[in-house]
């Protein structure tokens, strides 16, 4: 039986096992999708050794960047983004060969274009992790001006949350790439000046569990539009399977 899965920590919020196992059952595919909680990426070689039938896996927080040294090959797009969320595993000569891809960019871009008006040209990204890199790549592909909001700004295009009251009115798109608000810590949310949001703001939360995050609730209360990350997640999941099943 073919094995697929997801690595990261924690994994209790992930929809991937249910989605793929239901897909396999419905389509009579002899495969199983498992959760592999992995606090330390250095556990990956052991997982590969103990799971010889592993054909592919997803990568989530906190390993989208620190998995890169463990890969034998990285797609051109994933290399440009600097993060991987999908890995295809083959076994030439009896040894695992790992190829990394980034399907977050595909899923986000597809979902975003269905959510925002075409006229939007400026965006704030909350967070600077692996998911933020895919989001930034997608926004740049749409010719948007992008600034990253970080608790500890280090790069030229990064700003701190304290600067937002003076800037937020000029950025109609705000994308939360942080895990704040993810189940079970659903009361958490990014520290924005929500009172300055208007009907001209669009809040895209990469979190999809719960369906409506506190970030989204507070945005809608101020009149802004808001959506969660489920459509993005579904898009990347479909792209993952396309990659895994390709010979």
TrEMBL record:
Shikimate dehydrogenase substrate binding N-terminal domain location: 6-87
InterPro entries, A to Z: Aminoacid_DH-like_N_sf, NAD(P)-bd_dom_sf, Shikimate_DH-bd_N, Shikimate_DH_fam
GO molecular function, a single term: shikimate 3-dehydrogenase (NADP+) activity
Pathway stated in the Swiss-Prot or TrEMBL entry: Metabolic intermediate biosynthesis; chorismate biosynthesis; chorismate from D-erythrose 4-phosphate and phosphoenolpyruvate: step 4/7
Tree of life domain: Bacteria
CC per GO annotation: cytosol
Keywords: Amino-acid biosynthesis, Aromatic amino acid biosynthesis, Oxidoreductase
GO biological process: aromatic amino acid family biosynthetic process; chorismate biosynthetic process; shikimate metabolic process
Name of the protein in its database record: Shikimate dehydrogenase substrate binding domain protein
Protein species of origin: Odoribacter splanchnicus (strain ATCC 29572 / DSM 20712 / CIP 104287 / JCM 15291 / NCTC 10825 / 1651/6) (Bacteroides splanchnicus)
């Amino acid at each position: 039986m073919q094995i697929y899965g997801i690595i990261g920590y924690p994994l209790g919020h992930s929809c991937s096992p249910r989605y793929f196992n239901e897909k396999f059952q419905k389509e009579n595919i002899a495969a199983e999708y498992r959760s592999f909680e992995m606090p330390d990426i250095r556990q990956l070689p052991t997982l590969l050794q103990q799971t010889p039938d592993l054909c592919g896996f997803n990568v989530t927080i906190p390993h989208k960047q620190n998995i890169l040294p463990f890969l034998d090959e990285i797609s051109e797009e994933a290399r440009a983004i600097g993060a991987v969320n999908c890995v295809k595993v083959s076994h030439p000569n009896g040894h695992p060969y790992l190829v990394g891809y980034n399907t977050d960019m595909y899923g986000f871009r597809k979902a975003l274009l269905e959510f925002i008006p075409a006229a939007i040209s400026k965006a704030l990204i909350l967070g600077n992790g692996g998911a933020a890199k895919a989001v930034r790549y997608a926004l740049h592909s749409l010719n948007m001006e992008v600034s990253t909001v970080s608790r500890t700004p280090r790069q030229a295009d990064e700003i701190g949350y304290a600067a937002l009251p003076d800037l937020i009115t000029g950025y109609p798109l705000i994308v939360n790439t942080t895990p704040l608000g993810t189940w079970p810590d659903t009361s958490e949310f990014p520290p924005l000046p929500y009172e300055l949001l208007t009907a001209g703001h669009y809040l895209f939360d990469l979190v999809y569990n719960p369906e409506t995050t506190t970030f989204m609730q507070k945005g809608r209360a101020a009149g802004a539009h808001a959506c969660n990350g489920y459509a993005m997640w579904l898009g990347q999941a479909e792209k993952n399977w396309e990659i895994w099943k390709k010979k």
